Here is the input.
Amino acid sequence: MKSVGIDIGSTSVKVVEVQTSPKGTVATAFKEKQIGQSPGQDLSLEVIEYLRTQAAHYKAEGWTVTMGLRQEYVAVRNRVPV
Here is the structure.
């Protein structure tokens, strides 16, 4: 199984490719993009553009994607059965 892990932090975006086989798990690639280096650039747009270029390298089938986001960008709602 092939997996891609994406960590969106406050200063960089990290992308790691991991391949799992019967022998174990191996990290096959690691990429890091520093963000916020240009004073006038929007951080959100910078992250979106970088993720767009990275997404072009992966076909939808055959890959599992896991993302890490900062707490302020996540909303959690508990569903209560009625």
